[in-house]
Amino acid sequence: MSTGNFANWDGNVMDIGPIYPFVGWEGLMVVLAVIFWVGWHVMQIKMENRQVDEETTALSKQGNLQKALDAERPIDRT
Questions:
Q1: The whole model's pTM is what?
Q2: Does the residue 4 lie in any domain?
Q3: Is residue 76 pLDDT above 60, yes or no?
Q4: Among residues 2, 16, 25, 50, which one has the fewest Cβ atoms lying within 10 Å of its Cβ?
């Protein structure tokens, strides 16, 4: 890809052509980025929910869930 000769700045800008790659692909790239972004969030939520469920099940089996909840102390904001 050539960006043209800039030795003479009196030329027509339209004759130079595109000065960055993938001209015309901006819309598709935005759509793909949004799909990737939303997909990543969905995957992350599923993984975190699975981890919370596994930890809750493990604590419930040992009877430590209620102990862990009882041991929580509210933050004293005085």
A1: 0.57
A2: no
A3: yes
A4: 2
| Residue 67: inside a domain | yes
What residues have CB less than 8 Å from 15, skipping those under 6 apart? 4
Three-state SS for 20-77 is CCCCCCHHHHHHHHHHHHHHHHHHHHHHHHHHHHHHHHHHHHHCCHHHHHHHCCCCCC
Number of domains comprising the chain: 1
Determine the Cα–Cα distance for residues 36 and 42; give it in Å rounded to an integer.
Answer: 10
Full residue range of the structural domain in which residue 48 is found? 23-71
Residue 7 lies in a domain: no
- Looking at per-residue pLDDT, the higher value among 1 and 9 belongs to 9
Supply the Cα-derived Rg of the chain in whole angstroms: 28
